[in-house]
Write a structure and sequence with these properties.
three-stranded antiparallel β-sheet; 5 helices; 5 strands; about 65% helix; Multidrug-efflux Transporter Regulator, Chain: A, Domain 2; single chain; two-stranded antiparallel ribbon; mainly alpha
Length: about 160
């Protein structure tokens, strides 16, 4: 131990005093846990912390010594293993197959729609032609009925009408 400016005993160089309060980031760097793991311990009450004037949580340095060592199983959560890669590759292959099936169904539906549209246009053209023929036939019928009515009149009435005109 060394002494500070006023002659009090203090920590040696590179050693933190036990009553020093560390931010969660500094504590995480010192003890090996992640910042989030320490925050969760504070939330659960297994690690005592206070909020500093700057709004950051701070933990005592000596409380870190009471923590069990972090789990260093050697498995990096960011490391992809072969099983995960195989599952992902299988999923991608399944999705590509589903996409191809969906595209084929879409192409078939589009072809059916175009065929139905063509049939509808032809049916509409036929209906228009039939309507035109019906109008012409009605006009001819009206003319024929008028001629028939005229033909049924006695010749005297026809003669009188002709003279009035």
């Amino acid at each position: 131990m060394t002494q500070d400016d006023q002659g009090r005993p203090g920590p040696t160089r590179g050693q933190l005093p036990d009553d020093q309060w560390l931010t969660l980031t500094d504590a995480a760097a010192r003890c090996g846990y992640t910042r989030e793991a320490l925050r969760q311990r504070v939330r659960r009450g297994s690690l005592r912390a206070t909020k500093g004037n700057d709004g950051q949580l701070r933990v005592q340095a000596r409380a870190l010594a009471d923590l069990p060592p972090p789990d260093m199983s050697g498995v990096d959560p960011g490391q992809d293993d072969n099983a995960t890669l195989d599952v992902l590759a299988s999923t991608v292959a399944d999705l590509r197959t589903d996409l191809e099936r969906t595209r084929t169904a879409l192409d078939t539906a589009l072809a059916d729609r175009l065929a139905d549209h063509g049939r509808a246009e032809r049916a509409e053209a036929q209906a228009t032609a039939e309507a035109t023929r019906a109008v012409v036939a009605e006009a001819r019928l009206a003319a024929a009925e008028a001629a028939l009515a005229e033909a049924r009149l006695p010749w005297v009435v026809r003669l009188m009408r002709a003279m009035r005109r």
